[in-house]
Each structure stands twice: as structure tokens, then as C-alpha cells.
């Protein structure tokens, strides 16, 4: 049944509506595909196939009776294991949550997908408490990149990205506070959309601890998909708002943010972003190199000052503090302008005074205002997602002491958070789209960043990139 699992969601939904295939058949094909590749990639770490089969039969019966059904009716999908699903509570890679009662309610975003007729049947792997750009934990082990099993598919939505890339699922739901949608999509050759902050509910996400609803300053929920059209479909379902008609990019003004003295980029990623720029020019967009109207050093320091207190808040076992090696004096050093690669920039303590928080938010608001004014003349920003393609597995050491290879040089691991920081800190939407492959066959992505609530324009750009460059094939496992 491989031919079914390798097809995009919108085509499968057409086949379901035409009754050329049943929901039960699609579900069985997805489960079979997972069984075939699980030993290689370990993307799906928990299942409830019995519930999904019962729901699939109900949908097949309703469709046979000619009843009106939701937009995803009969489509099997997996869900990131940072969200509660009825019968499959979120473990989030934490041994303390491994034995949670199965009688949890769907997270709001899962309930939305289920109400549209989707069939959640499996949970995809994540790092410990969603706190890394690789997906591994003591409970479920390590997830491998389908394009190179020695490398990570990214994190924290890494199992989700791997499942999409391997043809296990055509839709997924992820979350993003440190690039957790965009980085795994980029590493794995699929699509993801970091939505405008606050537009999709995170109720039912873990962390925070199970049963607690405490939406963070930076975190968002968003769709992931194997094609641009499927990404648009799931975004429309999850957002529940208006559905602007797809448009082209002819006449759009897109600024390329690629040469920045504070940020790093490898030759492979540079070539991919430049190829994306050429593709958009060929589609009629006006694409020019730009300098953004904000200080990148100030942006990075503000991002870290906002991020680390959120990560470590509410956990008595200080999981994140152990990963980050936090120091109390770091926040003050950041406020004094410590550079991104300094020890201070990688070790912000989880406690900050009310005065510190107000000062940081004031700085952030000045940057928001400057970017909003810039978007008065420009439609989108084209940039890297990460400095490098998918990295080899690296689980030893702290996040603050690890390094990555960038064209033969060892640079701090936390540079993986650099290019994603703009959209996260300033609450605007951003999309990751596959645009190239390296000589070794690894996916290369471009990031498209838009204005507040400008998701529909980013989806138009994704459509144009896919139309001009083509879809990355399902990984051959």
C-alpha cells in the first residue's frame, strides 16, 4: 500500500470523497508503512489503532449514507507527543510522565482536527520536554532522519517531520518556541508554518505540566505537511478563520536576509536560499537583498532573555537548567550587550525581576514597531532556517557546550536558534519550505517570514516555490 502513503493529503481526500478508497484502507496503509520503517527511524512512539479503526469505520459508513463530513474526514494522521490525545497522553520524553493515565482529553488543536474528521492514530517522538533541536529521550529513544539515519530529523517536532518525510503521514501538528516547527521541517524536507503568536490554542500541550494551561510568551502551535497545498489545508482547519483564495507571488516584494555579520550560514544553505530567490523571481516576485531595520545582536539577546525563563519555569526538577547550565548573572550581562556567542548569551538564569521583564518587553516592542513599518513596503523576508542542514546525532554535553560543523569550522550549537529568532521574538508568522538538496542528498530549506497575521501570503510563497522547484520525494527507506 506504499502508493497510498506517499500521496499528498488533498489527493487522498479527493479519493475518499469519490469512494475510490476507504478510511479503513488509508489507516491500514499508514500503520503498515510505519511498521516497515519504524526500526530505521523510530518516528512513531505510541499508537491507538483500535480507536482509529473504529472511527474510520464510522466515517466510511457516514460517507456511504451521503452525510456531510468535515474537511479531513477519513484522513489518518499522527500527532506530536507534546499534545494530549484521547487514549494517548503526552509523555514529552519525560520519564515522570511515562505512566500517565490514558483517560486524558484531546488537546484543543487535536480536538479541532478530529472534529474535521481526521483520524489520530499515533504519537511522534520529541526531545525531553520539547527542549532541544534533536528528538531523543530516555522513554522512547532516538529518532533518525529518513534521508540519513546518522543524523537528526530535528526537534522538537522531529518525529513529526520524520514521519512526514518517510510517508507515514501526510499531516502533522507541531509547536514552535525555538524553531521546533521550522528546524525539523528544514532538516527533513517537509513544510511547516509557525503561526502568528496567539492565533491557535496550546491548551493540552505538555509542557507546561499536564493539566496546566499557561500559554507562553513565545510559543505557538502550527501545521506540518508533506506539500504546500496540504500545509494550507491544515492551517485553514486549525485556524478556523477565513480562507483567503490562494494567490500568486507576481509583483510581491521579497527581501533576502542572508548576509548578516551576527549570523552564520553554510555554503549549502546559502545556495539553497539563493535558489529559492531565483525561483521566486521566475514566478514574478521582486526579490532583492535587504538589511532589516533592527539590530540583530539586540534581537538575539532579547530572544534569549525571553526564552530561558519560559523554559525553566514551573519545573521543580530543573530539567532545563541542567540542559542550559544557567547562571544568575547572565541576564545582567545580556542587558549590557553581551554578544550571541558569549557564555552569557547561552546561560540565562530562569529568574528575572519585574523591572528586567518590562525593560526586555520595551526593547522587543521597539523592534516590533520597526518591523511592522518595514512590512509597509515589503511583503516577506526570505532567509535560512538554520545555518546548516541536518546535523549528526549529538546527545552528549549541555546545549551551551555542544558545537556543530559549519563548512569545517566548529561553532556553538546554539547558533541553530539564530535565524529562527526574528519571527519567534517578534510574534510574526514564518514558514519553512524545502528548496534544495546537498550533494549528499540532505534537504535544504528556506524560511519565509511575514507580517502579523500574514500566513496566507507565506502560503502563496510556498505554493510558488513548490511549483517552480518541485516536491522533495519521500525518503527511500
Overview of this structure, please?
- It is a single chain.
- By secondary structure, this protein is of the alpha+beta class.
- Among the domains are: 238 residues, Alpha-Beta Complex (Amidase signature (AS) enzymes); 69 residues, no CATH class.
- Helices cover 35% and strands 15% of the residues.
- The protein contains 15 helices and 15 strands.
- The strands form four sheets. Strands 6-8-7-14-15-11-9-10 form an eight-stranded mixed beta sheet, sandwiched between helices. Strands 1-3-2 form a three-stranded mixed beta sheet. Strands 4-5 form a two-stranded antiparallel ribbon.
- Strand 9, helix 9 and strand 10 form a beta-alpha-beta unit.
- The relative contact order is 0.13.
- About 5% of the residues have low confidence.
Number of E strands: 15
- What is the CA-based Rg, rounded? 21 Å
Through-space gap between termini: 15 Å
Described by the principal axes of the CA atoms, the overall outline is globular
Q: Just name the CATH architecture of the domain at 2-239.
A: Alpha-Beta Complex
Low-pLDDT stretches are 325-350
Q: What is the CATH topology classification name of the domain at 2-239?
A: Amidase signature (AS) enzymes
Main beta sheet: 8 strands, mixed
What does the oligomeric state look like here?
single chain
Explain the layout of strands and helices.
Layout: H1 2-5, H2 9-17, H3 23-41, E1 44-47, H4 49-64, E2 76-80, H5 108-115, E3 119-124, E4 136-137, E5 141-142, H6 158-165, E6 171-176, H7 182-188, E7 191-194, E8 220-225, H8 228-239, E9 253-256, H9 267-282, E10 286-289, H10 296-312, H11 319-324, H12 330-335, H13 354-374, E11 380-384, E12 403-406, E13 409-412, H14 421-425, E14 430-437, E15 443-449, H15 455-469
Amino acid at each position: 500500500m506504499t502508493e497510498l502513503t506517499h500521496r499528498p493529503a488533498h489527493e487522498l481526500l479527493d479519493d475518499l470523497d469519490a469512494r475510490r478508497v476507504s478510511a479503513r484502507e488509508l489507516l491500514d496503509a499508514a500503520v503498515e508503512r510505519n511498521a516497515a520503517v519504524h526500526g530505521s527511524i523510530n518516528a512513531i512512539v505510541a499508537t491507538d489503532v483500535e480507536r482509529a479503526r473504529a472511527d474510520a469505520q464510522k466515517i466510511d459508513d457516514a460517507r456511504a449514507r451521503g452525510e456531510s463530513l468535515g474537511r479531513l474526514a477519513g484522513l489518518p494522521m499522527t500527532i506530536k507527543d507534546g499534545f494530549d490525545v484521547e487514549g494517548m497522553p503526552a509523555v514529552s520524553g519525560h520519564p515522570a510522565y511515562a505512566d500517565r493515565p490514558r483517560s486524558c482529553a484531546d488537546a484543543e488543536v487535536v480536538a479541532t482536527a478530529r472534529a474535521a474528521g481526521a483520524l489520530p492514530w499515533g504519537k511522534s517522538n520529541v526531545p525531553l520536554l520539547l527542549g532541544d533541536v534533536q528528538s531523543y529521550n530516555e522513554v522512547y529513544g532516538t529518532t533518525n532522519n529518513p534521508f540519513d539515519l546518522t543524523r537528526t530529523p530535528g526537534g522538537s517536532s522531529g518525529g513529526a517531520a520524520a514521519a512526514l518525510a518517510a510517508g507515514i503521514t501526510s499531516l502533522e501538528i507541531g509547536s514552535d518556541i525555538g524553531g521546533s516547527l521550522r528546524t525539523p521541517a528544514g532538516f527533513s524536507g517537509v513544510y511547516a508554518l509557525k503561526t502568528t503568536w496567539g492565533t491557535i490554542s496550546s491548551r493540552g500541550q505538555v509542557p507546561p505540566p499536564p493539566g496546566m494551561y499557561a500559554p507562553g510568551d513565545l510559543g505557538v502551535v502550527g501545521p506540518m505537511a508533506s506539500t504546500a497545498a496540504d500545509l494550507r489545508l491544515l492551517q485553514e482547519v486549525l485556524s478556523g478563520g477565513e480562507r483567503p483564495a490562494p494567490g500568486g507571488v507576481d509583483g510581491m516584494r521579497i527581501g533576502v536576509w542572508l548576509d548578516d555579520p551576527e549570523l552564520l550560514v553554510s555554503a549549502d544553505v546559502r545556495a539553497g536560499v539563493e535558489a529559492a530567490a531565483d525561483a521566486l523571481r521566475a514566478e514574478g516576485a521582486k526579490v532583492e537583498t535587504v538589511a532589516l531595520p533592527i539590530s540583530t545582536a539586540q534581537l538575539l539577546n532579547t530572544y534569549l532573555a525571553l526564552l530561558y525563563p519560559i523554559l525553566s519555569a514551573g519545573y521543580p526538577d530543573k530539567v532545563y537548567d541542567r540542559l542550559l547550565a544557567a547562571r544568575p548573572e547572565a541576564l545582567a550581562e545580556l542587558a549590557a550587550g553581551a554578544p550571541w556567542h558569549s557564555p552569557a548569551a547561552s546561560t540565562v538564569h530562569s529568574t528575572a525581576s519585574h523591572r528586567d521583564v518590562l525593560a526586555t518587553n520595551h526593547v522587543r516592542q521597539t523592534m516590533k514597531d520597526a518591523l511592522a513599518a518595514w512590512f509597509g513596503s515589503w511583503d516577506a523576508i526570505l532567509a535560512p532556517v538554520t545555518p546548516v542542514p541536518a546535523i549528526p546525532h549529538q546527545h552528549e554535553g549541555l546545549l551551551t557546550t555542544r558545537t556543530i560543523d559549519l563548512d569545517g569550522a566548529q561553532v556553538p550549537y546554539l547558533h541553530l536558534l539564530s535565524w529562527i529568532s526574528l519571527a519567534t521574538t517578534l510574534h510574526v508568522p514564518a514558514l519553512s519550505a524545502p528548496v534544495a538538496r546537498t550533494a549528499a542528498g540532505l534537504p535544504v530549506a528556506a524560511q519565509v517570514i511575514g507580517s502579523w497575521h500574514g500566513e496566507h501570503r507565506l502560503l502563496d510563497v510556498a505554493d510558488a516555490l513548490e511549483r517552480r522547484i518541485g516536491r522533495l520525494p519521500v525518503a527511500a527507506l
